[in-house]
């Protein structure tokens, strides 16, 4: 797999604190840490022998590190949620011996809901996402919209096959192995239904009916997807007065390729409805990663009025972004932003489209997709 430079600056953070580094499997956590800290002592809890030794004698890690001090390197513990008791040892080594740790996890649910020692502020929490456009040399938009941007899949010679294997072994078997749901067949059916509703407002009753499970189970399943970092709710912006806003959130999977595979979507091409939805999903993942990586304090939301005026994304209450898969944005694509402008003094009004060149329509700027992403990561918005 091609080695890429990730945007997340762990070295600067580790100079000050230990870190939790969360992210779904194959987002590249282990590869990033090997690239940044090749000599760091590592305890990979996915390895059966390592897990067995430390589960039987957690203090073994302390005994080894006190004899073989890591020097300038942090200590890496991969998949810490598999053995939360190690956090007591980590706590002691940070406090008594000033060691620095990077504790990775693909499922923080067990830690946060199981009463684990979360180190009481002694470690900052970071999250790694699939590859962002700024991390990919000459990003292939159509490839991303079809297969997503998990590193091993984006650079794969057989992305469809590898994506199918990933979904089968991780999103279903791993959920079962973690004991997050007792009926994995129900959860698998729900995953497909949730993927079909991706980028749309959630209707728990309809999803429950389609997935053949009770509505309360659907609510719990969405909670599992969020707690395991596999999905995210996008809350609506509700502070408009002239036009009443909806109160129901949208849902997005963490990666557009994963959503496509679950929903059975293939061969997504320009000038189709699926292309527009996939493009919106991709822009969501970029905005989310940007705001998290740059520690931008503004919230990400969407706006929709009860009269069906809609804006795909709002950054804080200043930047409105509408995403269109069309090759040329027209005045009819601007109605949502124009309606929102009646309530908010927006500093920037943006349409992201497949236009070949940036242009102005009134006070709204139309950006080609890649130019918008370049300007986003240059912090122009």
Describe it for me?
The structure is a single chain. With 381 residues, the chain is α/β, with parallel strands linked by helices. It folds into two domains: 10-128, P-loop containing nucleotide triphosphate hydrolases (Rossmann fold); 134-377, no CATH class. Helix content is 41%, strand content 16%. The protein is built from 16 helices and 13 strands. The protein has helices spanning 10-14, 29-36, 48-56, 59-67, 86-97, 109-113, 141-147, 151-154, 159-177, 184-196, 204-211, 215-227, 256-263, 273-293, 335-341, 369-377, and strands spanning 18-22, 42-44, 75-78, 101-105, 123-127, 231-234, 250-253, 300-304, 310-315, 319-323, 348-353, 359-361, 364-368. The chain has a six-stranded mixed beta sheet with strand order 8-9-10-11-13-12, sandwiched between helices. The chain has a five-stranded parallel beta sheet with strand order 2-3-4-1-5. Strand 10, helix 15 (335-341) and strand 11 form a beta-alpha-beta unit. The longest helix is centred in the C-terminal third of the chain and has 21 residues, at 273-293. The chain is globular.
What layout of secondary structure does this protein have?
Elements: H1 10-14, E1 18-22, H2 29-36, E2 42-44, H3 48-56, H4 59-67, E3 75-78, H5 86-97, E4 101-105, H6 109-113, E5 123-127, H7 141-147, H8 151-154, H9 159-177, H10 184-196, H11 204-211, H12 215-227, E6 231-234, E7 250-253, H13 256-263, H14 273-293, E8 300-304, E9 310-315, E10 319-323, H15 335-341, E11 348-353, E12 359-361, E13 364-368, H16 369-377
């Amino acid at each position: 797999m091609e080695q890429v430079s990730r945007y997340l600056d762990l070295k600067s953070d580790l100079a000050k604190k230990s870190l939790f580094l969360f992210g779904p499997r194959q987002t590249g956590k282990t590869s990033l840490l090997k690239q940044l800290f090749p000599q760091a002592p590592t305890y990979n809890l996915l390895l059966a022998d390592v897990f067995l030794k430390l589960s039987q004698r957690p203090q073994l890690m302390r005994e080894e590190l006190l004899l073989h001090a890591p020097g300038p390197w942090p200590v890496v513990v991969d998949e810490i949620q598999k053995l939360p008791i190690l956090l007591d040892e980590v706590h002691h080594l940070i406090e008594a011996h000033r060691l620095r740790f990077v504790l990775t996890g693909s499922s923080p649910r067990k830690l946060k809901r199981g009463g684990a020692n979360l180190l009481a502020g002694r470690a900052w929490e970071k999250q790694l996402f699939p590859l962002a456009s700024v991390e990919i040399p000459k990003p292939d938009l159509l490839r991303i919209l079809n297969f997503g941007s998990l590193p091993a899949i984006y650079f794969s010679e057989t992305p469809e096959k590898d994506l199918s294997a990933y979904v089968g072994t991780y999103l279903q078997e791993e959920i079962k192995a973690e004991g997050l749901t007792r009926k994995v067949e129900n959860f698998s059916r729900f995953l497909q239904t949730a993927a079909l509703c991706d980028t749309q407002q959630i209707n728990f009753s309809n999803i429950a009916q389609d997935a053949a499970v009770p509505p309360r189970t659907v609510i719990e399943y969405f909670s599992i997807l969020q707690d395991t970092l596999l999905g995210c709710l996008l809350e609506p912006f509700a502070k408009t007065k002239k036009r009443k806003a909806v109160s129901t959130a949208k849902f997005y999977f963490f990666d557009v390729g994963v959503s496509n595979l679950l929903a059975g979507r293939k061969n997504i091409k320009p000038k189709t409805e699926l292309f527009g939805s996939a493009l919106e999903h991709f822009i969501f993942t970029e905005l989310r990663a940007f705001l998290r990586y740059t520690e931008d304090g503004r919230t990400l939301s969407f706006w929709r009025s009860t009269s069906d005026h809609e804006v795909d994304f709002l950054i804080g209450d200043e930047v409105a972004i509408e995403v269109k898969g069309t090759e040329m944005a027209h005045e009819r694509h601007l109605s949502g932003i124009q309606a929102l402008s009646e309530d908010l003094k927006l500093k920037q009004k943006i349409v992201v489209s497949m236009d070949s060149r940036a242009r102005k329509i009134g006070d709204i700027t139309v950006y080609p997709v890649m130019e918008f992403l370049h300007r986003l990561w240059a912090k122009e918005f």
